[in-house]
Amino acid sequence: MSELKVTAIKEGTVIDHIPAGKGLKVIQILKLDKLDGGALLLAANVHSKKLGKKDIVKIEGRFLSEEEVNKIALIAPSATVNIVRDYKVAEKFQVGIPEEISGILKCANPNCVSNHEYTTPKFYVISKEPLKVRCHYCERTMEEKEILANL
Amino acid sequence: MWKGKDVISIRDFSKKDIEYVLKTAENLEHELKEKGSLEYAKGKILATLFFEPSTRTRLSFESAMHRLGGSVIGFSEASSTSVKKGESLRDTIKTVEQYSDVIVIRHPKEGAARLAAEVADIPVINAGDGSNQHPTQTLLDLYTIKSAFGKIDGLKIGLLGDLKYGRTVHSLSEALTHYDVELYLISPELLRMPKHIVEELKERGIKVYETSDLESVIGELDVLYATRIQKERFPDEQEYLKVKGSYVIDCEVLKKAKETLKVMHPLPRVDEIHPSVDSSKHAIYFKQVFSGVPVRMALLGLTLGVIE
């Protein structure tokens, strides 16, 4: 295996095993592009035994909540999260799809009230495999393709 | 248990809830027949917020509130309200709840009733939100079926017409999953019931038959629930013209039906049911309109907490 081309971080979070091409979306979902603290590193399209190709996101000096991390599962269910302290992995967990999704997903129904009034969009996960969610407001069901387009 | 509760979606109703509303409506209908008018909601005010017109539903709610002895305020189109000045739904609801004890809302946006219920501290009843839900219509449909047959279990029910865009048939089929019924989905190919609903019905143990040929199944049915093919829901008028007038229920078609078949329709109708059917023993669509009053009386009384 070729040497990993991304610098190790002392403290922070490493999101590994992101399907290739989804790394930027992970950064957007977690609003990491607005980071005002440490470095944000993205390794895209690197070799992976498990996935063939994968993306990796490293966030220096920031620890994500489990709920925050679970949002990633919507686009990268294979992702793993490593909490790094003093250059060592102190904690590692697999992401999981939450039962409810609030605030990160927009309803695909243009006539849904959540797209017109001040409110936080909310969805219930009705199936994890394949991924299907139902809008709390208009009750419309969205499948994976629509979910990804509206993150 | 019911005081302060919102009525937003038929999905929120258990079988026990449905049966309780139907029983309460039945009691109220009898009591109303006996006494002429009731006073359960005396001193209570209903606000009917109709952001789009719907004569039947609005009048039915207003009639129900008057029959309960309460009074009504409200509007029947958004253009005469502060919405025209750009007021948000949230603010309209917060304002109106200062004047009333219960709100009934009809709104063109899907999910508007759910949002209104979250904002208001008083009960909110959904009278139709876009093409999403119309739970009181579903409850009155169930009430009509139960009044006609004394039961819902064991019936073979045909849903006919626009099953793709028809809000009433989506909600009714959802509610019928609480019962032991067989559903016949009869529509043109273009207007079939959405796949996810058919799958859900099957998953919940309902026997579902799909066909476009009414005459081949009419002899099986106990209830034929016809719907209008809604021109306004079609993104393309050419598509509408392909299916316009697909079904016409007339006395000739009904010759193949059981003697006891009941024909229902949420109304308004265009040409789906010939007027000659109105006077036949099969027609119960005007009784269905009447059912709206006791059912809505029950919902208003229960959510206001004046009936238990």
From TrEMBL, chain A:
Annotated positions binding Zn(2+): C107, C112, C135, C138
Cofactor(s) listed: Zn(2+)
GO cellular component, one term: aspartate carbamoyltransferase complex
Domain Aspartate carbamoyltransferase regulatory subunit C-terminal: 100-147
Entry annotated with the keyword Zinc: yes
Keywords: Metal-binding, Pyrimidine biosynthesis, Transferase, Zinc
SUPFAM superfamilies found in the cross-reference section: Aspartate carbamoyltransferase, Regulatory-chain, C-terminal domain, Aspartate carbamoyltransferase, Regulatory-chain, N-terminal domain
A Pfam family assignment: PyrI
GO MF term (any one): metal ion binding
Domain Aspartate carbamoyltransferase regulatory subunit N-terminal: 4-95
Record flagged with keyword ATP-binding: no
Entry's transmembrane regions: none
One of the protein's GO biological processes: 'de novo' pyrimidine nucleobase biosynthetic process
Taxonomy, superkingdom: Archaea
Gene3D superfamilies, sorted: Aspartate carbamoyltransferase regulatory subunit, C-terminal domain, Aspartate carbamoyltransferase regulatory subunit, N-terminal domain
Cofactor: record remark: Binds 1 zinc ion per subunit.
Family: Belongs to the PyrI family.
Subunit structure: Contains catalytic and regulatory chains.
Physiological role: Involved in allosteric regulation of aspartate carbamoyltransferase.
Name of the featured protein: Aspartate carbamoyltransferase regulatory chain
Automatic annotation (TrEMBL), chain B:
Name of the top EC class for this enzyme: transferase
Pfam families: OTCace, OTCace_N
Pathway in which this enzyme or protein is active: Pyrimidine metabolism; UMP biosynthesis via de novo pathway; (S)-dihydroorotate from bicarbonate: step 2/3
Keyword line: Pyrimidine biosynthesis, Transferase
Domain Aspartate/ornithine carbamoyltransferase carbamoyl-P binding: 5-146
Domain of life: Archaea
EC number: 2.1.3.2
Gene Ontology molecular function terms on file: amino acid binding; aspartate carbamoyltransferase activity
Binding positions (L-aspartate): K85, R167, R228
Domain (Aspartate/ornithine carbamoyltransferase Asp/Orn-binding) ranges: 153-301
Reaction it catalyzes: carbamoyl phosphate + L-aspartate = N-carbamoyl-L-aspartate + phosphate + H(+)
Annotated GO biological process: 'de novo' pyrimidine nucleobase biosynthetic process; 'de novo' UMP biosynthetic process; amino acid metabolic process
SUPFAM superfamilies for the chain: Aspartate/ornithine carbamoyltransferase (SSF53671)
Record-linked NCBIfam families: asp_carb_tr (TIGR00670), PRK00856.1 (NF002032)
UniProt record similarity statement: Belongs to the aspartate/ornithine carbamoyltransferase superfamily. ATCase family.
Self-association and partners: Heterooligomer of catalytic and regulatory chains.
Function: Catalyzes the condensation of carbamoyl phosphate and aspartate to form carbamoyl aspartate and inorganic phosphate, the committed step in the de novo pyrimidine nucleotide biosynthesis pathway.
Protein name, entry field: Aspartate carbamoyltransferase
